[in-house]
Amino acid sequence: MKFYQKVLAGSAGATGAGLVAWKTMFPWLEYDIQLMKAGKKLYKLKDEAMKSFLIDKFEEKVAMTPKKPLVIFEDNIYTYEFIDQMACKVANIGKSWGLRRGDCVAMMIENEPSFVWTFLGFQKLGVAVAFINYNLKMHPLVHSVLAADPKYLITGASEQIIHSVLEVLQDFDKLPVYVQGLGTNPVPCGLHSLDDLMIQTLPTGVSPALRAGMTMSDIFCYIYTSGTTGSPKPAIISQLKGSSFGLVLSGCVDFCSSDTLYVPLPLYHSAGGGIGLIGVLSSGATMVLRRKFSARNFIEDCRKHNVTVMQYIGELFRYLLAQPASPLDSQHKIRAAFGNGLRKDIWVEVAKRFKIPHIVEFFGATEGPSMLLNVSGKPGAIGRLSPLLNALDSDPKALVKFDYGTAMPLRDKNGHCMKVGIGEPGLFLSRVPQHLIKDGSFKVYKSSDEANEKKLIRNAFVPGDLYFNFGDVFVMDKEYFIYFQDRIGDTFRWKGENVSTTELANVITAVPFVEDANVYGVSMPGNDGRAGMAAITINPGTSLSAKEMKELYDHVCEELPTYARPLFIRHLNQAIITGTFKQRKVELVKEGYDLSLVKDPLFFLDHSKKTFSPLKEQDLAKFLSSKL
Question: In angstroms, rounded to a whole number, what is the distance separating the alpha carbons of residues 229 and 449?
């Protein structure tokens, strides 16, 4: 860190001809300095963050600015004081249930104020909260809830959530389920009303003594990730990591108490609920919250509520650009946008049309030990990986050669990972900080030691080192900016969500006539991420008639959230496997749904006919131009 500061001081002191020569010899150093300044600020903020917990910071803000808006939702204003009073009610209810520090409660609530006060209420007790994706259904929902080992499940009152919970209620192993937001409407049989308890409970403050003994290593919350295998897994977010989420906006875009943040991203994600919500709570700022993203209302919302900073994912801007252009597109007070997935092909168009002065792109993983930042405004770049930055980094990062089939690094004759050159695709690894290593390992997930170990690369460059495998492939240019190229292994990303190929295959093979399913992601023109495609084989004596395709359609629509449903089905006569009987995806991914390459029958998710319809040339253009 001291060397880091010396380099900054030296670079700031360079003037005149020396500065010109410096830029001529190493033009990329200018970008390094920009990132190092942000890094210095983040390090300073992290030191401060370690001195108090997020709930303590929130309660301080309540005392300082009780009447200040914390959440603006559907044109209603929820002040810091009001949110705290509701959180105190939740805390008192939790106390009456016998909850104590170290326990866990699962929460399945849409983007609404109750998410905020329910989360904060349990934080007052030192109780961890598992953020459940409200799109989940059937087995993935049951698995996600039970994996966190919660004492209670708190849900929102949307028809979709209640229906999904009632479908699997008997599989929750007598877990009490409380619904919040029904008001005077009757509570479905088997569920309980949290509203009744909230009405009966006083907003009396709870003593911080109830969370006495809490440390920065205690569980803050669980945020789920598909990871690389199987069903969604609860990634462990410690109090320290949770507090650190809130520093990112402050360090990168100077986010402070006078700012208003627009959060259209789901709060159960680490972007919306971590960087967004926690960033607002840490800074004492205001958050404009929308239940679901709306391209038509986005800029109008920002203009109406004087939004100064916005969050995004790449797909969000594609939807905004698809809206009819208007002179009002640039009439707003947004000074910075922070997010990930804004690709080079639309970056310049976004900046030009919406006139956002500062766009900061980041890359990270919920369970990962580090993140990348592009604070230089380089279109399409997700961060930097220069020799200087890596030399100064106590926990360096690397792009290494890898095997597409196994999603693991290749090793040289000495057993070490091999770094790639400029322009060569490389698997992204980041060394695990020493303070996160316990008993020789880095605990990523609450359960599943096998999945945990799969994310770790041991003895990568020197004996005894430990690196985290993000499972993503990047390419580096001559200025040491890096760009996302692909996600490999058993997960692909679609509509801003990670989709587990194993989980999807398990759902498809549950259909009686399907023998096996090889699931992978395929590129789609004009869309970020990859869409789901399944190459299936069927049981002997069966066929793929209209009846079977209708059955498959109904099954995936019932079992899976919209983003996880396969858009394409390929019927194989026999499975494509390796010599060790593992599924091969490389050829399948390469051929995709290209009718000139694929001679097997192809089908597409046809919502108009509520089935998987045969994919023909005349259907393809119409299908690809739709909203998918």
Answer: 12
Identify the CATH number of the domain defined by range 78-241: 3.40.50.12780
Residue type, 172: F
Torsion angle of alpha carbons 385, 391, 392, 397, nearest 10°?
Answer: 40
Q: Which residues contact 15 (CB under 8 A, 6 or more apart)?
A: none
Backbone angles phi, psi at 152, to 5 degrees: -145, 160
- Ranking 231-235, 401-405, 486-490 by mean pLDDT, the lowest is 486-490
Scan for tokens 């080079």, then name that residue: 344
Matching fold, domains 385-486 and 491-625 = no
CA distances from 614 to 97, 306, 521 (A): 55, 49, 19
Question: Distance of alpha carbon 240 from its chain centroid, rounded?
Answer: 18
CB contact at 8 A, 105 and 221 = no
Provide the H-helix boundaries in 235-338: 239-245, 248-253, 279-283, 298-304, 314-321
Q: Which of 156, 89, 155 is nearest to 125 (CA)?
A: 89
- Tell me how far apart the alpha carbons of residues 94 and 90 are, in angstroms, rounded to a whole number: 6
Q: If you classify domain 385-486 with CATH, what class do you get? A: mainly beta
Q: Give the chain's mean pLDDT.
A: 87
- Closest Cα to residue 611, out of 543, 564, 580, 565? 565
* Residue range 61-68: mean pLDDT, rounded: 96
Largest CA distance in the chain: 81
Q: Which CATH architecture has domain 491-625?
A: 2-Layer Sandwich (3.30)
Helix axes 29-49, 2-13, angle to 10 degrees: 140
Distances in whole angstroms, Cα of residue 481 to Cα of each of 152, 386, 395, 403, 473: 46, 8, 18, 23, 14
DSSP lists the bridge partners of residue 570 as 535, 602
Beta bridge partners of 571: 536
Q: Where are the domains of the chain?
A: 2-39, 78-241, 246-377, 385-486, 491-625
Residue with structure tokens 């986005």? 298
The one-letter code for the residue type at 566 is: P
Q: Which band of pLDDT confidence, cut at 50, 70 and 90, is reported for residue 15?
A: very low
C-alpha span between 375 and 383 (Å, rounded) = 8
- Per the CB < 8 A criterion, the answer to whether 91 and 117 are in contact is no
Tokens linked to 218:
């205690």
Contact 575, 583 (CB under 8 A): yes
Assessment of whether the complete model's pTM goes beyond 0.85: no
Q: 246-377: which CATH number, 3.20.20.70, 3.30.479.30, 3.40.50.980, 3.30.70.260?
A: 3.40.50.980
> How far is the C-alpha of 483 from the C-alpha of 343, rounded, in Å?
9
Map tokens 């309660």 to a residue. Answer: 59
CA distance 488 to 15: 46
Query: Using CB atoms within 10 A of its CB, is residue 488 exposed (0-12), middle (13-18) or buried (19+)?
Result: buried
Q: How far apart are CA 616 and CA 566, in angstroms?
A: 17
- For residue 1, pLDDT over 50 is answered with no
Q: How far apart are the first and last CA of the chain?
A: 48
Q: Shortest CA distance to 549 belongs to which of 494, 508, 594?
A: 508
The pLDDT tens digits for 522-566 are 888 777 778 899 999 888 888 889 999 999 999 999 888 888 899
Cross-strand bridge partners of residue 399: 428
Residues in the chain: 628
Q: CB of 384 within 8 A of CB of 374?
A: yes
Contact 153, 177 (CB under 8 A): yes
